[in-house]
């Protein structure tokens, strides 16, 4: 395991001493005490579960200093303390095992291969001891926490009486109890009346916060989560994708729906300090839990149309964004909340310092981006994980209906329906059923599945168009193998934010659509702690400078993360790969060459049980039972590795024997190799400890799996009628060649030397596009086909 | 979903009233109040998160009574209340959704198909209202908890001031706070000196217990868990199984190892009321957590040789059992514990009422069985899940080394090594390294992998031989598809306990080696709560009569559990199935018939990447690439379903062209069908709420999966040299026919009508037995081969 700690700050001796003093680990007077006394004092503090000195001694007695000496023996008869001896003890304290994991003769060798920080000074004096101890406290244990976090979880701060919040190494420490949280629900009044009942929509808002010293106001981590109050079963409402590609005609513009007037705010009939409803939240996010003990409240809201709130779901609309930021406005003192829906008793977020960060993955992260594009005051930063930045890029591509993976038939109406959890309360649902049915119909009209084109509906759901308004600093996290929210979403918002001048950080991992807060190879919680301490408490920890702009997980080796200056930048070098009948090649073709394939892979797909996962594997592997449905070309084995960085542009010259057609492209890494798993493996169930009170998450890590023959690098799809743009329909004359030119999903992927880069051109994609029944024959003019690949070096 | 509630007790009206009064839900005076007043009072109590009356009213306002009437409207203008109306409300309270899950016109229909209890009386009067409310409180919500548990988790008992513990419907309720547990470690002194240091072994014991009213003593759920303090990586220490079957010679009896003398107990230098060490336990069991809030302490101990304890691991030995029960003896006041290892300060379990139950799965459950066979005082009951009852049945079978599935090469020495977590503390390990190395050598001698025979070593590890000493009542839980701890372990101890007269309960599920406390289809936690309230608090709830002797999950339908009088009883009817070249058949064969197969499947296994999972599938499915390595016979499609109950006996007449040989038998259900998954699917992450303080488990359930072609019913293996017994070696003359007769693993399995019962006879099993290189040819005399199948009816 390599422990990549981007958030470990190096401080000078004076600063280290000040911080150690603050937590009782190195008294100012200690600088003149014997070294062994200071070392012994520190070691005693390393066993906070031991209440008595005897108990501490017994814990100490289990440690060895080197091959000859136990720690107990050393403390009884102190001599000089070497760096080797110190790090032998340090590694034991961090949870590593003598003999099996590291050798007492050379602990530093293990620390180097594990990427654990150390100082080389030897033998130690009081100054180097204190800097070594400081460094150790900020270094990760075997289970992926800083050692100080580990001590805190074992009771280190139980008797702490110093100032709160407490920051150490620039990060907030777990000095707030989470076993006695204030858990409450209030109703924020949004400037909306989406359910058209003549009253502003009230939004149930759940707050979990620690009890704090008098006078302390704390910031909030706010997660806007449409799934928070449960979801509806929409299996029966999925659109069928077993249908023909339409010959497009320009749609009749839908009649503009008048925006209903917004009623006046409720009158205020009084004020309360206490909420009237206890929260019993179950769906929480580990990162929020982690920060709770460190002095950051957690705020959750489902938003309009979710259970206990007013309004209706509108999937990506402006109203949804307005609903999302209403909570921030309340936290920031600019909007009202009430204790209940009846009495108009106002309750203020008087506990909040007005600073808010948004967190969450997928739709949750999407709403964080939506909120940021409003420039709402109080929103200091967002941590948007696997977030949509334009809903067109979620449900469409180049004039095609293209589903998120494993979500064939889903669309904005289905998702709105899924999240409309007001349906769960029968009497409440009855009041709003018709309004919501009308809204679903509006969504169906606007999303226009029949053309798949970009239109006003999608433009209203493209947050990137509002990027200029962003004032919050932004952390983006995305999986390079996320085929649910595809990487274009993160790449385009990353680029769109460049001109704004806000601080931007980007973390790209090799997983799918997942959270990555609980992996030992990356100090994700530390980085976010550093970031949030900076953003919400104003701690001068230089977080924007400490963290690299971009952190990308290596796809060849486990537990390997690199800092980069940028990702997918416009100035990447590019290399053209040409198509010949025999290969994908760097050499320009000389002879004309045509190939054809048939698009009838739905037939075989159905014969084989309509299994999309199986289809993807069958379609990509060699040999493929779908060989007649594709053109597959490969390079010769690469002499050197190739690091693709950004979006490959595919240019294809193609004809189809039908009046409509589509092209799909897969770019594949061929070569037998152990590769990282698609999802992280479990390292230890409940192994990632979030708080001293005992909240945990599972500890997981991407590990190299048994060797496979290939790995999909990226993909893309285009409607031949949209060869000019995703808004323009051009006719397709059967058997006439047209050139299409489109970007595949962006990536960062190293193809190893000896591997072959492959491309598969085909038409309908059983897992993502419509699945026409009509058998179409496609021709490609290979001379005019190419991949334009941006690349970089590691 | 069908909610099978075996622990729901039906009580008379008087008892219901008494219990409802105790929790404030139905005052004695209420019997003369208007029905609507009583109904309103109850409904208000159903929203404990609502602090004010307004807030309660708003929650009530979301409920409907029927298609015309909301609950609010009804309460404003009360009329008669029908059973249909009551159960409409009840289902909404239980979390079911109007319209999508049940219809307001007929809630009873849904309750019937869901196996939810109801009363038919209509319209309701005060008496029927109170019995209906009582019944509702004991009925399961959609997430698999009683409604009263659900209310408790939402704060119902937050203001409870009545007596504790509190029992409702015979089960302890969550009236103890778990957010402020006492968490402590003490050192129990066992009457052992397994590490031969001249001092009795001290065993670190972790106690988690709620704070209780003065004077209350509570019972303990004790989990003996050798993995509690972590495990060692033993991948390099697995035995190779790529080796030939030995031609056995009788082994030279190992020299008896003298039992080291047991030192005198430590002197007592004082007494303490408080422990000296806080516990920071992470590896806990959900069932224990669930019971903590209900007034049952949790006690965990790793036992000898685990981190923080003395001694060495001895895997299944008498010393291990003595170490296990030392904790019970302390809890029961018959053994000493100390606050630390140094000062000899005694600490008593003064908080404990002396009554102990043991819980846990696999090795943990095994130690529960071990402890029970000592008859130790204070151990009132054990809940042994997936437990070993004889270690020979775990690592051996009929004179063969047979591994638990996915554990090829493991043996008692490897497991002892794996659990010897003292290795994690370098200074501690150094003291005991040699003693433990010697012990491992003793284990290797005793386990005798070269013969695979039963011997004194295994006899000492056969707990069933001590079954007559069992005094504790016993609950056994086992997966019928558990190929780690195979079902013979549970079947044999079930039978062995029959003469003892202790209470015995048995739960057989269709899973593998898993816990089943978190499945909505079975009220496992309720049953155990009922049982433990009876056993440890002496509650007169008639638990032994309420719960069926045996509960078995159906293998054809999801969420279907049946109560049975017994399992695998000796008086089951039996049916002989004969082997002919064409089929497995009920007709006795007339003509002689010989078939042969070759045992060289290791060759293909290696060519295909040594993947045991793949091998099992390839070997069993049709057609099989391993066809030359097996005899496969099938019945004609069954005209009627067949419920196999118990152990199939295989009789085979076979010859091999080598001086040693083995036979394996698989019995298979062939027929395309949707079957239950091998492991339960996730229903809701964190969906199973254990305590009001917020501990959760994932909610899971066995669901029908996409159709498959076959399912393995059972299996067995035998060494031809052990055709007489597992202790006797008989020579195998090449090409000479011998008859073997042996039991396959017991099961309870319904083969559906139309399916074919199949049998596969083969030799080496890549996943379980040794894997000889020598290519052997086996012959079978089919006329003398048969399966003798015990069966029953549902």
UniProtKB/TrEMBL annotation, chains A, B:
<dbReference type="InterPro" id="IPR036313">
    <property type="entry name" value="PepX_N_dom_sf"/>
</dbReference>
<dbReference type="InterPro" id="IPR015251">
    <property type="entry name" value="PepX_N_dom"/>
</dbReference>
<feature type="domain" description="X-Prolyl dipeptidyl aminopeptidase PepX N-terminal">
    <location>
        <begin position="1"/>
        <end position="156"/>
    </location>
</feature>
<keyword id="KW-0031">Aminopeptidase</keyword>
<keyword id="KW-0645">Protease</keyword>
<comment type="similarity">
    <text>Belongs to the peptidase S15 family.</text>
</comment>
<dbReference type="InterPro" id="IPR008252">
    <property type="entry name" value="Pept_S15_Xpro"/>
</dbReference>
<keyword id="KW-0720">Serine protease</keyword>
<feature type="domain" description="Xaa-Pro dipeptidyl-peptidase C-terminal">
    <location>
        <begin position="529"/>
        <end position="788"/>
    </location>
</feature>
<dbReference type="InterPro" id="IPR029058">
    <property type="entry name" value="AB_hydrolase_fold"/>
</dbReference>
<comment type="subunit">
    <text>Homodimer.</text>
</comment>
<dbReference type="InterPro" id="IPR008979">
    <property type="entry name" value="Galactose-bd-like_sf"/>
</dbReference>
<dbReference type="GO" id="GO:0008239">
    <property type="term" value="F:dipeptidyl-peptidase activity"/>
</dbReference>
<dbReference type="Pfam" id="PF02129">
    <property type="entry name" value="Peptidase_S15"/>
</dbReference>
<keyword id="KW-0378">Hydrolase</keyword>
<comment type="function">
    <text>Removes N-terminal dipeptides sequentially from polypeptides having unsubstituted N-termini provided that the penultimate residue is proline.</text>
</comment>
<dbReference type="InterPro" id="IPR000383">
    <property type="entry name" value="Xaa-Pro-like_dom"/>
</dbReference>
<dbReference type="InterPro" id="IPR013736">
    <property type="entry name" value="Xaa-Pro_dipept_C"/>
</dbReference>
<protein>
    <recommendedName>
        <fullName>Xaa-Pro dipeptidyl-peptidase</fullName>
        <ecNumber>3.4.14.11</ecNumber>
    </recommendedName>
</protein>
<dbReference type="Pfam" id="PF08530">
    <property type="entry name" value="PepX_C"/>
</dbReference>
<dbReference type="Pfam" id="PF09168">
    <property type="entry name" value="PepX_N"/>
</dbReference>
